Fold these 4 entries.
Entry 1:
Amino acid sequence: MASQDAERHWTIEDLDFSRIALDKVRPDENLFYLVTSASFIESGSDLYTHNLVDFFKGDQEVTDWLSQHWELEELQHGKALRAYVRHVWPEFDWDTAYGNFLEEYATYCKVELLAPTRGLEMTARCVVETGTATYYRAMARGTTEPVLHDLANRIAADEVNHYKHFYRFFRRYREQEKLSRFRVFGTIGRRTLELKSEDADCAIRHVVKARAPHRAHDTAYVQQLSARMNSTIRTNLSAGSTLKMLMRPLELPARVQTVIQYPIRQFMQHVFLR
């Protein structure tokens, strides 16, 4: 029984939304945008799953894990975050705002936008999971509200577990494709630069459109809002663990890692969470 409990994945029912300390979170507009934007992106994960399953067609181990584990857990993240938003900010029309977001977001989720090889796409997946794990770890550190703290930690743990699977698949494809460190590093750099592009921008714009319609076309306001959100994450992130995850696919010797750690840390600070 103990081993079964240890293997059981958490569910939304494990979260007691009646314990939410509304006085700590309801007035916090920055937190509202952080949680709601994340709920949109997580809820659209099935679009990416279909693309990835198509891309890795023929590799049953990968496609089964994507369909039976990764997609279900990502969608659960979206449902849990949506439930949190509805409990704390019930006046926000989540369904309408998400529907508008999804209509635009679907145009960004195309198979042709994936990496040129399966091994490099697994590299890109490692970068994405590094980003999401960092985001939720920072969210957990940045709030004293117990339910959100618990939820963010649960999601962060899932994202780290997803990273481990993608990294294992990456190592298999790296050997098959004889990928050089140069190509892997190039993918890490490009995908890192893209982390703060369409997905997050699209989500923030649609949350603003529903939350503050008069600000919907105020580019300066949206940029300031995004900067505040990034500052919250940057202030609460664990740079060491993020850097370690980001560099791991390079599989560098320890001495080399020590030499390049500082410039990569600077790159991460100025780009990864700009």
Entry 2:
Amino acid sequence: MRQYGRRYRLEIGNSTQSIVIDNLAISFNIEKTISEEPNTSKIEIYNLNANNRNQIANKIFNQVKLFAGYDEPRLIFAGQITQAYTSRNDLDFITHIECGDGQNDYSKSRLYTTLKAGAKDSDVVNMCVKAMSSSKQGVVDLPKDKALPRCKVLSGDIKDYLKHVAKNNDANWHILDGNLNILPKDKVINDSEGFVLSEKTGLINSPEKTDDGLRVTCLLNPKLNIGSLVRIQSILSEYDGDYKITQLTHSGDFLNDTWQTELIAINGKFHKVEKK
């Protein structure tokens, strides 16, 4: 596995201040899916100084952004810290951080408002975004955008209203790197990053067919993301084609050679939605 050129940048902080870590040994495991449950990350940092460890432990620092890749790191995760602690192994102090992407918005944000007759799904989405504390609107495509036949009182968790909007439009909703996306099941995000995955571009071994889709492993690639299109070109030509990414795991470890992306993708013909 290619070792040279591996880079990362980890930003930990809050809305007003942050620290940047790019020269300590770390390991990470990022898990993303197209479902509504928050994407998660587990990060371990070796020998972070005591002051910064305390800032994290005391929840003064509560946000994380992780950039990784080869040569020029790119964003692979953004979210809120849900748990943090430090352990010791011989001479090493290891800070363990667990995070959720849009965790607070998913579990705590609520709506209290009344919609007039004729209000559409898009109006509900706009109100949900306004009620969120840490997420903003990303790719939202509502082909049906149904209107309410009569006025309606909204009083409850935003995740329930977003689930209803997604169902109305045969779509999936999720928060991805701090952005609320609602993407119809027959569409992919057109972010100009459509990537051809082959042995020349980092494909590791052969794809594997599973009940959830095609499982593919490659060198860590931050260009790959949920809802995007990937074109597979494998030694096993029966798996060649265009796929929509529905699950993705980035894993890396500066104490060994782990530096890869594993994805699950489904085959089909997909229309493209422009990334705004």
Entry 3:
Amino acid sequence: MTIAKLIPIIFISVIFCQFNNVEVNLETNRISFEDEQIFENFNYNIENYIKNNNFCPECEDMDIDLNLHFSIQKIVTSGSKKIVYSQLYISNNKDHYFFSRDIIFPYKKNKSMTFNPQTTKSLPSILNYYLYFFVALELDTWGLEWGNAYLNKIDLICDNLATSSYSSGWDDRKENIKKIKSNKEYRELRYLFYHFLENFKDFNKEENDSRILEIFEKIKYQHKKYGYEKNTLKLIQSYPEEFSKLFSAINLTDGIKLLIIFDEENKNIYEKYLR
């Protein structure tokens, strides 16, 4: 008699998460103790959604820090639903952050969320919007305008949610995308800066000097065209020492003076490199 042996096959599913270091904070001091109870495990559910889904299947090496702070303003009961009105601050702990006053979503205690890129549910859509946005911004540092496909994804999210029951804030979010996509000089500056920091050892002095001058010209263009352009300012404020060292390396005092004009907050840092 032949004995058939069943060999168990273990299927291992590997999820390449783009957000491994996630911190979620929740502020509920504006609402009642009773309403506060629905947020039991809220932080865990948000973190679990972010960490256990793949928002960029082609981005195996991507690892973005993420900090989210929800400030609950009020809870409105509508039939059997609890509608949450919140503010949200979300940051990559680097050069980009967003603050929204108009985060509105129905929420049920301990209800988990399922990832669906085409969802029109309010809370998952809000999370998808910002997560895709940070993926797009990170891809822009890998290659010039590499983030376009993901900016287009969140553009579609905005269109879908703008006509939903929770449409507040989505026009402003769409405007954020427009500002990034239309400012090609900023995206070039950001790519050049990160690419230089990553690869400067691979270039000779002449090549490095040329790239530093190009970075300076991009900042000068931004200031001339837009004044204190918000996204450029965020980038400079995130790396005051690095920009100072770049310009100081080729004795570009005009570059350091431009940093002072652009970023008064870090004036003391820049002035060290003028001495």
Entry 4:
Amino acid sequence: MNYDEYAALEGVNWSRLKLARKSLLHFRDEPKRPDTASLGMLRAVHALVLEPEHFAEDFTVYDGRRDKRTAKYQAFLETVGSRTVLSTKEHAEASRISQAVAAYKPAADLLSMDGACAEVPLHWTDRATGLTCKGRTDLVITDGKRATVIDLKTCRTIDGRGLASDAARMGYHGQLAHYAAGVESCMGVEVVAWALLCVEGTAPHDVGLYYLDDEAKRAGSALRNDLLAQVADAQREDHYPGQCMDPGMLTLPAWAVDAAHDFDDTFTGGGSDA
């Protein structure tokens, strides 16, 4: 199943479910993500790392300015079909990132293991809520009974402390919980380990592999289950509240209040004997 076929499946994926962290209104009226150059490059990184043999089926490279107003680029687009067009700069950057991952021995070992399956499409019914779910996990390694679920991330930093903060803010633990539930439901195996394979998006593209501890896994499962329960309740009641249902009081941060006091003292002569 290619990406377009997966995308056409009905079901709640993590990209949409995590919007409920903001509000159920955001979940219901999911904003359409523009197909930006950066998004295309990130997808290219995944393809080059996980399924390099299929890269040419989903991507092509244009050596020149991608200006739809020019006859040259319009003619090129007519040959592209459904493939994503990368600039030579984007392709070179995606290649550098994928090469950094390939040169990282723990990653190379995982990708070459028996039972390693890349870009696995998942489609299942959540037993607790009855919601139809879907996911496309980057890498599953299984012996037919137990499995490890791995997600490839292009990150700001692979420093453990910084990455942990980013992972919590971005909900990576909830995403892995979603994939783990899908793998167990669709493949009939027990997921015993969740991992993040992280590569820094800027040079030198440092790489790290981190397994989530039991506490992080419990937090991820709790986050996912809570969001699914909220969505199921909202669908049943046809009520999708936003972030601010009642009037609130807005308090400025301390630094802004202090700056205002300094500004006031400057122009009123406060604190001066002049």
